[in-house]
Design a protein that fits this description.
2 strands, globular, binds zinc ion
């Protein structure tokens, strides 16, 4: 579908409100990690964890394998830190990607239901141009990076396997995350909805107050 300027402009306010609600969800998940990491006695800042990430992925992007440089690296949550994926900032879920892959993966992370795989990272690595509609942007991304059809399918599969292997070292943390996901998802849906409702009411009240004050002090 072509870009519709009018629709884009009309939706500006609802986009701003969902940005606020998404930020609140992210703050909740960041806060939660303190308790989870204390419970597990492990943290992503542990030196041993950084060594394990480096041993598994070198200094390269965990998805596309391109070498990382400071201004092009992003802390990556394999299961995205949002209300749909409910990824946590814990060992086994945090690695390093390039900013490009980090951005491209967001399309899958922001889907409530995934069709290609159960998790956000696996879904992102399943866009091998064999199962999506022709206009799929993520498939186009991987096709541009890996033009050869056979090589692309093999390479994405090898990357999925490498990440699976890496995650096997963190059964406790990832098991906890899996078990709590349905309950957290429900809580986050509520937090998200309430945050949007609060933003709507509070902004309306503030706008009314400002206008009332202005109408008294500024002659029209
Ligand atoms: Zn990458
Ligand atoms: Zn695709």
């Amino acid at each position: 579908m072509s870009f519709q300027t009018a629709t884009y402009l009309r939706k500006a306010t609802s986009r701003a409100k969902s940005d606020v609600a998404n930020k609140m969800v992210s703050m909740f998940l960041h806060d939660l990690r303190r308790k989870v990491n204390a419970l597990l006695g492990a943290n992503v800042t542990d030196i041993a964890y950084a060594a394990a990430v480096t041993a598994a992925f070198g200094n390269s992007c965990c998805y596309c394998n391109r070498s990382l440089e400071h201004d092009r690296a992003a802390v990556e949550h394999l299961e995205g830190m949002n209300r749909f994926r409910v990824g946590l900032h814990i060992q086994g879920n945090v690695i390093v990607a390039c900013k490009r892959c980090n951005g491209e993966k967001r399309r899958d992370d922001q889907q409530r239901e995934l069709t290609l795989a159960e998790s956000g990272w696996e879904s992102f690595l399943s866009h091998d141009f064999t199962r999506c509609p022709a206009q799929c942007k993520t498939c186009a991304y991987w096709k541009a990076l890996l033009p050869d059809d056979v090589q692309r399918v093999d390479s994405l599969k090898a990357t999925r396997n490498r990440i699976h292997e890496f995650r096997k070292s963190y059964p406790e943390a990832l098991g906890w995350s899996r078990k709590t996901k349905p309950a957290l998802q429900q809580t986050l849906d509520t937090v998200y909805r309430e945050c949007q409702e609060f933003a709507t009411l509070r902004i309306r009240k503030a706008v009314d107050e400002v206008f009332e004050a202005l109408s008294k002090s500024v002659p029209v």
